Amino acid sequence: MRDRTGAVLVEERTPGEIHVTIDRHEQRNALSTPILEALLDGVRCAERRRTRIIVISAVGEHFSAGADLDEITGCKDDRAWFDAMSNLTAALTQSSAITVASITGACIGAGLELAVGCDIRVASHDAFFAMPSVRMGLVYDPTAVTRIRALVGPTAAQRLLVLGERMSASDAHGHGLITSLTADANADTSHLISQLDTSIDAARETLRLINAAEPTAPRWRDIHHRSLDTPERAAAVVRARRRTSDKSAR
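-> structure tokens emitted (250 positions)
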């Protein structure tokens, strides 16, 4: 299903797994307000279907070169664009599904903000990352800044956010900006999803705790107690017992 712009595709590839794909490769998947709104609609569509995994990806060589500069004016009229960007990243961070960004090529500015709004980032070796907002005279969204700093630490955050340095995929992986570095982001994303499939609920809640700025003890206890009594956990214990039994029998 394509949105009204024709540049965002929403499809359920397997039950419980929805892919929201940017298809604007002629513009290096630049993010205009209509594209951001279409991506938000895709995430909300996935939520309505109670999907377990949402994958954000892009057609072509690049994940996203950032904001669509044909739309950005450099004045207060840009607030509508930033509101659309903020709404999208909020929907991703608050989603009940596990969100995954599958990244190739350029992941710059708003593209990087979109990626760090996801729980997990899988990147190909050709990916590169940059956040040139300060060079453009902009103090960036505090939520994105906080998330990037939490992922990479203050020094690497300064390189990205203040100096506007371009970070290679290997550098980004070393600093913790991306979760997995691979020759083929799409293939590795599929492999990662297959690994999560047997323990999706526990994985989702653990990711929430990892990504939370200050997870509260009562919330953690509630999540922990609920996870003790789930079909997924019971099945996992059975599998673990079988593995132990098989090893003992050798």
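The first strand starts at residue 8 and ends at 14.
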